[in-house]
Write a structure and sequence with these properties.
The protein folds into 3 domains: 158 residues, Beta-Lactamase, CATH 3.30.450; 88 residues, Signal transduction histidine kinase, dimerisation/phosphotransfer (DHp) domain (Helix Hairpins, Orthogonal Bundle), CATH 1.10.287; 158 residues, 2-Layer Sandwich (Heat Shock Protein 90), CATH 3.30.565.10. The strands form 3 sheets. It has a 5-stranded antiparallel sheet with strand order 2-1-5-4-3, sandwiched between helices. The protein is built from 9 helices and 12 strands. α1 runs antiparallel to α2. 57% of the residues lie in helices and 17% in strands. By secondary structure, the chain is of the alpha+beta class. A hairpin with a 4-residue loop joins β1 and β2. The structure holds adenosine-5'-triphosphate and magnesium ion. Adenosine-5'-triphosphate binds next to α8 and α9.
Length: 474
């Protein structure tokens, strides 16, 4: 059963229940109302004729009384079945609706004098249910006679039923129209829901098949519109991830292949050199290149392993009180030979009163090393790299120390500064051909600083150098 049909069925069923419930209540209320209305009418009629008769009876005008009696029956037949009057001398008059001798004799017998007013229900010999009203006519304490009217209960019921059947007919017409409209509406609703869902399903299938150039075009502002926008964003992200994955694979192969081919090439050269008697300097240069390639490979593999551990929450930090000054000096001296080789300058500025900080020294060393190696990588010849340490942070306050890794290199376009911390992200812009990497270094920096409850960010613009800053709690 498809969604459209289901929705139509449910809404129609719901409306049917509502219609039945409402109709039943209207029916009961209307029946009660009509019964009350007819009963009151009957009593009002009876009372108005009593006063009419009373006037005539007072002056013993039997002709006027007769007129009143016959008027009740002629005006209110078929509801009024008979009416009669007995005067103080026990003379009675009687008018009937049907003029049927057999039936009339029964009713005539009921025209009796009474000193109290009352009403009585009974079934006549012809089977008609009658409600009889009896009222003595008093004037100045004298009983002038008794006025009697017999109303047909069956006739009243007939009129009530007629009123109800008219109403039932109207309810049926309105309900049928409402049902038809509801079915149309439900069908339309079903269509408006089912159509975008079908689009989403088709688009999901396309994505599952690997077709990532997909976009759902729905011009709606409701929840379905939001869903389609979210879906489009998701598809866009999957596409970006896919292209990131491709560039990661190519970066990984590049990162693996270039140091390996350097090692391979220089090993061959050194083996060859043994026979050809290469000088010590030549051999040392070859070995240094092999060493650098090994370090590059090790760093790369460590980065991947670290990130995997971070993502699996398996990377632990072991904090000890650490002197940041000696840590930075150690890193600078490690990078010094490379800086000289690349004709770049690396230095540090350490402010007074830098306290010992509770950190995992190895991890923070890795953070600064990653930042410095980026600074070296993205700085041209004669570039300058400075590491600065401050005993407090202007932005985060006195409870943090702040560290800068500053370079005057190629910079990062302003709108990409925050993106560089994302996994595999590598800036593509700028005239300078950026050396390839894996785009993992800064992600690791970000995660490690986060594990220390610190914050890291970058300030840069294209061609204007870059400063990476991080704070660590004291
Ligand atoms: N100091 C910097 N100057 C200019 N651009 C930088 C600097 N540091 C990082 N970037 C940009 O940010 C990107 C992400 O840096 P990240 O360290 O995460 O990756 P990578 O250096 O390319 O590769 P990896 O560090 O994994 O070998 C770099 O590709 C580079 O474009
Ligand atoms: Mg890097």
């Amino acid at each position: 059963m498809n969604l459209r049909f289901k929705l139509t069925l449910y809404i129609s069923f719901l409306l049917l229940i509502v219609i039945i419930g409402v109709s039943y209540n209207i029916f009961i209320a209307q029946k009660k109302f009509l019964t009350q209305q007819f009963s009151e009418n009957r009593e009002r009629t009876f009372k108005s004729f009593i006063s009419m008769c009373n006037e005539a009876a007072k002056v013993k005008d039997d002709l006027q009384v007769y007129k009143a009696v016959s008027l009740v029956v002629s005006i209110y037949k078929p509801s009024a079945v008979y009416a009669g009057y007995v005067n103080s001398n026990n003379v009675s008059m009687y008018v009937s609706r049907d003029n049927n001798k057999n039936i009339d004799s029964e009713f005539k017998r009921r025209i009796q004098k009474s000193s109290i007013d009352f009403s009585e229900k009974y079934t006549s010999l012809s089977g008609e249910r009658i409600c009889e009203f009896v009222a003595p006519l008093f004037a100045d304490g004298i009983n002038n006679g008794t006025f009697i009217v017999g109303f047909s209960q069956d006739e009243m019921q007939r009129q009530i039923n007629k009123g109800i059947s008219t109403m039932t007919y109207q309810i049926k017409v309105v309900s049928t129209i409402a049902m038809l409209l509801a079915i149309l509406l439900a069908n339309f609703l079903g269509y408006t829901f089912a159509k975008p869902l079908k689009l989403l399903t088709d688009a999901s299938e396309q994505i599952a098949k690997g077709n990532l150039d997909i976009e759902i075009k729905l011009n709606r502002k409701d929840e379905i519109g939001i869903l389609s926008t979210t879906f489009n964003n998701m598809a866009k992200q999957i596409k970006e991830l896919d292209s990131m994955k491709d560039s990661f694979v190519s970066s990984v192969s590049h990162e693996l292949r270039s140091p390996l081919s350097a090692i391979d090439g220089y090993c061959d050269l050194l083996i060859d050199g043994v026979q050809k008697d290469y000088s010590k300097e030549q051999q040392l240069k070859g070995l240094q290149i092999i060493k650098q390639a090994t370090i590059r490979l090790t760093n790369f593999i460590n980065n991947i392993l670290d990130l995997a551990k971070i993502k699996a929450n398996k990377l632990e930090i072991k904090k000890t009180k650490t002197d940041m000054q000696s840590l930075v000096i150690e890193i600078v001296s490690l990078f010094q030979p490379l800086a000289i080789q690349q004709h770049k300058a690396i230095d540090y500025v350490i402010m007074d009163k830098i306290p010992l900080v509770e950190i995992d020294a190895e991890k923070i060393k890795q953070v600064i090393t990653n930042l410095v190696s980026n600074a070296m990588k993205f700085t041209k010849e004669n570039g300058k790299i400075i590491i600065k340490i401050f005993p407090f942070s202007p932005g985060y306050g006195d409870n943090y120390i702040e560290v800068f890794v500053q370079d005057d290199g190629i910079g990062i376009p302003k709108h990409q500064v925050d993106l560089v911390f994302e996994k595999f992200y590598q800036v593509q812009e700028g005239e300078f051909k950026r050396p390839k990497g894996t785009g993992l270094g800064l992600t690791i920096v970000f995660e490690m600083i986060k594990m220390h409850k610190g914050y890291v960010w970058a300030e840069s613009d294209l061609g204007k150098g870059t400063t990476f800053k991080f704070v660590l709690p004291k």
